[in-house]
Each structure stands twice: as C-alpha cells, then as structure tokens.
Design a protein that fits this description.
2 domains; globular; 13 strands; alpha/beta; six-stranded parallel β-sheet; Rossmann fold; seven-stranded parallel β-sheet
Length: about 475
C-alpha cells in the first residue's frame, strides 16, 4: 500500500514538473514577442541583482556585465530582476531611471541598452540582519526562493547571478536554463573553517564562541554541513566566474564542481589619466579608503599611526575615508575618531564624502594603506594605485595574489602595526625620489588591467565561449 502511495506522489510531482516546464516555455515565447525578437537563434538573458541602483562595486559589476552582454549578443532580450519597488522605482520608469542613475554613479552609458524590468518583492529574505542565528542557512533558503520567484515571473534562457546568490540558481537550472554566477566571495571558505577550528576570535567568530570548545565544535559542524549544501548548489552553475585568484582558489577547494572557474577581475574606477595631471602632493599625507566595517580593521591603522609617531622626523597625517551603511557603521567611525583624539594621533575620519572630494584627497596624498586581511579582491587598493599613491596592503587574499607586486607596484605588510609602520615609513622617507616615482608609475600601469573595458571584454568573451560550447 505504501509503495502505491509513494508511486502516486512521485507521478504527481512529475506531472507538476512538466506542467510548470510547459508554462515556463510559453512565458519565454511571450518575452520574445514583447521585445520584438521572434528569433530563437539568440538566447534571452536575465540578471538577478536585488539592489541594482545602490551604487556599490557589485552594482558596477551588474551594469558592466549588462553592457558586455549587449555587445556580444546584440539581439538578445535582456531582463533585470531587482527590488525596483523597494528602491521607489516604477517598472515603466525603470529603464530611464537606471540610465540616469548609472551615468551619475559610474559614468556608464546605457543609451543603447534596453531591458525588461521585473520586480522581486522578497529582497528582505537575503538581508543578514533578519537572521541573528543560522544566518548563512536562512539566507541561502531566501536566495533559493528569490531565484524561483524571479525565474517564474519571467523565464529566460540564461539566468545570471551578479549578487553572489549561488543558491538562487537551483530553480532556473532545474527548469532548463543555462546558469551563470559572478562570485564576489565564497559564501563559506576554508579560511572560515580554520578560524573556527583554531578558536580564533574574528569579526565573524565572536570571542564567546572562540572561548568555548563546545560552541566552537557545534559551529564547525554547522559550517561543514553548510559547505556541503553550498557545493551542491554550485552544481547548478554552468558558467562560474570569480572576481580574483583568491576567490577562484577557494571555490575550487569548496565546490564539488569540476567545470573550470574563470577569473574575471571586477571593473574598477581606474582614473589614471587624472593622476597624471600636475597636482601638488603632500608627502606626509596617508589615505585609506574603505567602508567602516569590522573586517576592514581600521583599528590597526590607529596602532600603525602610534608606531609612526615614534619616528620623530615624521609628521605624517592619516585621512580615513569611508562610507557607512547603517547606524553600526556610523558608530564605528565615530569611535575611531574619538580614539584617535584620545591617543593624540594625527588622524582624521571622513564619512560619506563626495566623489570629487575623494578624488582631491587621492591626488594630494602620497601613501595609501589598506588593512583588511583576506580581502577577496580589493577595488579600493586598485583605486589608490590608479591615483599614483605608494600603496601598502595586507599580505593576503586578492591584494597579494592579483594586485600588489611587493616592492614593484606597492608594498605588502602582515598583521602587526609595527610592520605597517615600517612599510609606510619606507614609502614616505626610505626610498629615493627615483624609486618612489618608479613605484608610482608601476602601480598606475598595473591598475589599468582592472578597467571597466577589460572587465567587459573578458566577461563577454567567457559568455560567447561557454554558451556556444553549451
């Protein structure tokens, strides 16, 4: 009896699957009719990016990817799944508003790009603030639902995730779409497992858990279980791309997939031409650029300045420039400002400054610092180099593997304030003028590798090669 019941349930599931598949096929045909493209020779593309107009590095990736796709598939219908209503954008205004906003934010021209906007009403499901516990798992479930919702609203031939939502690919893949994912960072990595296993307190591993053997073991088991789910979801990705060698290496170690992961460096605002304009530099001004998030480790920069103050001949000033996303970031920036004042350090904190003010600071400064460990890539590091600053970055992650050639295009330091102070002191006073200028020029030339044009060319070529082979 049980066998008959199981067979009946299975038959019903199969019937539902084929009915949904037929409905999805009809919806695809409707998209081609609405976009005046009846040809089946060119695939339709859908880009999932919940907050498409937020103005961050991920959004720059989205719009550069859209432009690249339009260049190599000029006749393909394009769809963008985003939380348009949450951003206060009506669907009938989405294309024009996007063109205006993207030009203002990134200087990108979407005049020749048209797309069908689809509103996703479940963006809150991937917000980590919604889940104080089991955050990774619950975000993954939210991404699965988001992928189903987006694909059901408007099915496409090629479903592209540009928001690091690998779990969103499950439904599109199940219903026959080819899937693409641009991975900004691995959702779970071997580094995360190592931090928990060795019981080290970090921004993503609280001291309370690090001190407890039982809690550390439980968290480690949770991470291992989630890593298997993540690897399973990755099986649904046909064309994986990573933003750096560091990210690619971690995906290869965590994912079960044997399809090669393409390294496609993110598009960076490399304004090298501006840096060549004659502008007097303050040889004692140090700049750091990065959001005031815990992992950016601005506290190390304060310790570095304290060590630099021990060099009596140096009168260096540090300008911390960064954005704040919420009240926690704002409080963190204010705490840094107060600590610098209490310790008598020559440190200024600038929050959410204009793009022009940032450019002025980068033209005037002499040295740039970046203190995040295991930065997946490091767009701000590229920007520092592009403006001709001698850049001191952390000896880890994409900064070490892809951006800074130590002693040639910049300098690398470890985890200690002493080493950062030593490298900054060397950049400020330890080099000859000829060596300093050579490093500036080498850094600027290196930054050109990560331009928007380079990203678009590589992204487009990967699509052509892998979609054609499919």
């Amino acid at each position: 009896m049980l066998l008959y019941a199981l067979f009946g349930w299975f038959a019903e599931l199969v019937a539902v699957f084929f009915v949904l598949r037929y409905m999805i096929k009809q919806r695809k045909k409707k998209l081609r009719t609405e976009t005046s493209n009846e040809s089946q020779a060119t695939p339709s593309f859908g880009f999932l990016h919940p907050h498409s107009l937020s103005g961050g590095g991920g959004e720059r990736v989205l719009w550069c990817a859209v432009i690249a796709t339009r260049k190599v598939f000029p006749d393909s219908p394009l769809v963008i799944y985003s939380a348009w209503a949450d951003a206060g954008v009506k669907l009938e205004e989405a294309v024009d508003r996007s063109r205006l906003k993207v030009r203002e934010q990134f200087g990108l021209d979407l005049a020749d790009v048209s797309f069908v906007p689809v509103d996703i009403k479940c963006a809150h499901l991937i917000d980590p603030s919604q889940y104080p516990r089991l955050t990774l798992l619950l975000q993954a479930l939210g991404a699965c639902f988001m992928g189903f919702h987006a694909f059901w609203e408007q099915p496409v031939d090629v479903f592209v995730d540009t928001a690091n939502l690998t779990f969103s690919l499950v439904t599109p893949k199940a219903f026959g779409a080819q899937t693409v994912s641009y991975v900004h960072y691995p959702t779970v990595s071997t580094d995360m497992l190592t931090v928990v296993r060795t019981r080290r307190a970090r921004f993503n591993n609280s001291s309370a858990i690090a001190r407890s053997a039982g809690l550390s073991f439980a968290k480690l088991m949770y991470y291992h279980a989630f890593a298997h789910l993540y690897a399973f979801a990755a099986l649904c990705c046909d064309i994986p791309m990573a933003n750096s060698s560091w990210t690619r290496n971690h995906l290869n170690s965590v994912w079960w997939k044997r399809t090669s992961v393409e390294t496609v460096f993110p598009p960076c605002p490399t304004f090298c031409e501006e840096a060549t304009v004659a502008f007097p530099r303050n040889e004692s001004l140090i700049v750091s650029v990065g959001q005031f998030r815990p992992e950016k480790n601005h506290a190390l920069q304060l310790d570095m300045m304290e060590k630099l103050a021990e060099h009596d001949h140096l009168k260096a000033t540090l300008l911390m420039i960064g954005g704040v996303r919420n009240a926690s970031d704002a409080a963190r920036a204010e705490t840094l400002r107060k600590q610098a004042e209490e310790r008598g350090l020559a440190v200024k904190v600038a929050v959410n400054i204009s793009r022009e003010a940032l450019r002025t600071a980068l033209r005037r400064a002499s040295v740039g610092v970046h203190t995040m460990r295991d930065e997946h890539f490091g767009i701000s590091v590229v920007e520092l180099q592009a403006y001709g600053l001698i850049t001191v970055g952390h000896r880890s992650g994409g900064v070490e593997l892809d951006i800074i050639d130590d002693g040639v295009t910049g300098l690398l330091a470890g985890d200690t304030a002493e080493e950062y102070a030593e490298k900054v002191n060397h950049a400020l006073r330890g080099m000859s003028k000829e060596k300093r200028e050579a490093m500036r020029e080498a850094g600027m030339e290196s930054a050109r590798r990560f331009s928007e044009e380079a990203f678009q060319e590589k992204f487009g070529s990967v699509l052509v090669k892998r979609i054609a082979s499919h």
